[in-house]
Amino acid sequence: MRADELDPDLAAAIDEIESLGLPAWSDLSVAAARDLEDDLFSGPPEPPVAEVRDLAFDGPHGEVPVRAYRPGTALDAADGEPGRTLVHFHGGGWTLGTLDSVDGICRELAVRADAVVVSVDYRLAPEHPFPVAVDEAAAAVGWVAEAADALGVDPARLGVSGTSAGGALAVAASLRAREFDEPPTPTGQFLLYPIAGHDFETDSYRENADGPLLTRADMRWFYEQYLRSPVDAANPYAVPLRAAHLGDLPPATVVTAGFDPLRDDGAALAERFGREGTAVEHRHYPAMAHGFCSLADRVPTAEAALSAVAEDVRERL
Predict the structure, then answer these.
(1) Strand partners, 280
(2) What residues of the chain score a pLDDT lower than 70?
(3) Can you give the pLDDT at residue 43?
(4) Fewer CB atoms < 10 Å away: N or C end of the chain?
């Protein structure tokens, strides 16, 4: 499941990142990690979209900021029909991440999938540990459906998407909708290198313990911030692979990368989806590493992967 070598374009991008001499996330305090992330994601907004709106809704733990991206075509069809929408949850180990840090990939998804993308600024650990982010993720899906007319979207064509920790939140929102019959039920899940397990001794964790871009130590650190106690690691809303049953969920796309510590967890999630009755498309990229879709402007394989996910969104929503 892992290529002999990293894709050369990705390797060049990683060499450039590593030349900055940045410390690992797990070597920093939470405050310092967030400051570093702010510095890393401070570039100009790309690609252009027709409209960006900063909004908020009243969630179960207080006001939740969101950012809605409208591409130039999603709401401009001649028949005036409302379009598809993605509720997107950023990565960052439930500890890092802002609306700005995920701005680029939200714009890409909006343009490529011809969808309104609603990015959710859920509360972060350790100040707000599990299950706060899950509560807010589920509430965000409900709010988008309720605000469909104002957003110009069709609540029957509503998917959830996420990168890394955001992928875990997308699955949790779908599980909540199924288990508690909480409308609306998402009509698609689009999961990019999701966090799905809590076993740090899988083949992919051993092979990619030192990265690149994400290490085993980073993942241990993120879980330490997020979980209130070891007991939470048995909860399927925190760790999706702990769910007793992963069938009867919205059709899913799962993206995995060969050089990612999370590779085997994502593959196991996709396998269980298919075996237990959830339609799934597993898109695996053996020469890629964690977070590679954010480098679509520099890495052709990442560009192709993001386009494939966008096509799945178009077909399912």
Answers:
(1) 252
(2) 41-44, 73-80
(3) 62
(4) N
The C-alpha R_g of the chain, in whole angstroms, comes to 18
196 half-sphere exposure, CB direction, 13 A CA radius? 31
Let me know: does 195 contact 167? Beta carbons within 8 Å: yes
Per DSSP, 233 falls in state: G
**End-to-end Cα distance, the chain:** 30
Distance CA 192, CA 112 (A): 15
- pLDDT value of residue 73: 60
pTM: 0.96
User: Mind telling me the catalytic residues?
Assistant: 164, 260, 290
- CA distances in angstroms from 62 to 58, 118, 132, 249, 309, listed in the order given: 6, 18, 11, 28, 32
Give the rounded distance of the alpha carbon of 193 from its chain centre.
Answer: 8
Q: Which residue has the tokens 């064509």?
A: 157
Q: What is the DSSP letter of 160?
A: E
CB 262 within 8 A of CB 200: no
